[in-house]
Amino acid sequence: MRRLLALVLLLAGPARAEPVVLGYTAVNEYMAAFVAAEQGFFAAHGVEVSLQMLPNGGVIPPGLVSNTLQIGGITAPLLLQAVSGGLDLVLIAGGSVVKQDNPNGSVMGPAGTRLREPADFIGKRVGVSAIGSFYHVLFRQWLADAGVDPGRVVFVEVPFNQMGDLLRMGQVDAVTTTQPFIGRFIASGIGVEISPFTAHFQNGLLSNVYVATRDWAAAHSKEIAGIRAGLAEAVAYIPGHKREAEAAEAKYLKLTAEQVASLPFSNYAAEVSAAQIAEWNIIGRAQGLMDADVSAQAILWP
User: Fold this and answer.
1) CB-count exposure of residue 204 (10 Å: 0-12, 13-18, 19+)
2) Which pTM value belongs to this model?
3) Please, what is the end-to-end C-alpha distance for the chain in angstroms?
4) Of 100, 117, 231, 253, which residue has the fewest beta carbons closer than 10 angstroms?
C-alpha cells in the first residue's frame, strides 16, 4: 500500500501552488498588473497571479486581512488611513503617479453644467468612489488650496460604474473619476470635464500602489519578488506596446477594443520613495485623516 501511494504521488508530481489573488478596482491605474498577467511577465518570474476586479478600494484591505486577497491595488491615502487605523499592511510596489501634463483624475459634470471654479461647488453634491479615496482626498485638497472649505461640499459615495447613471439622473452635481470613465462619459454625452484637478498637484505624487499584509509578505518572499519584477517589466513594456496594453486593459476592465482605443494611459511607476509617503502624510494630517505620520520605513517592504 505504501509503495502504491508513493507511486501515485510520484505520478501526480509536485503540488501546484495556489495562485496569488490580486484585487483591483475598475480603473486603468492598474495597467501594469493587467499587462504583466496578460504578457506572462508574472509567470516568467515564477508566480501565478489571478486578477479580481472589485467594486471599490474600501473592500480591499479587509480582503487582505481575511486572506481572500493576497495583493491589493489601492490608493496611497487609503493605505495610510488603513495603517493609521491599525491594519498591518505593507507597500510592495508602486502603481501610478500624478503628472501635470497627463492628469489622471478629473471632476466631471453633466452636460450643460455651470460649475467651473472651486467656489462653484459650495453646497453641491459630488460623487466619489469612497470617502477617503484618492479622488475624494485630492479634490478636497484642491478646494482647500483655492480657499474653499471642503466641509461646505456634500460628498456621497458612488461606485465608479454607477457615476454616469447618477449624473444623467441629476442625483449628483459632479463626480470625481479617472479613466476609463472620463473618456466614456465624454464619448457618450453623459458628462463634461469641469477640471482635471489632479494637474494642480506636484509631479510624482503617489497615486495607486500594490500592498499586502506584513505576515503574508514575510512568508512569501519569492512571490513578492516575482510580482515586483513582473510589474517593473510591464511598466517598461507599456510605452512601446500600445496595442497590447490596450488589449489587456479591455480584458481586465471588461471594455471593448473600441472603448479603450481613445483613452489615455496613466503614469505608471513601480518604484516608491520615502519622500512620496511624506507628501501624503502632509495631506492626510492637514485633512485630519490620521492623527500621526505613517512611517515610510515601516510600510515600504524591503
Assistant:
1) middle
2) 0.88
3) 48
4) 117
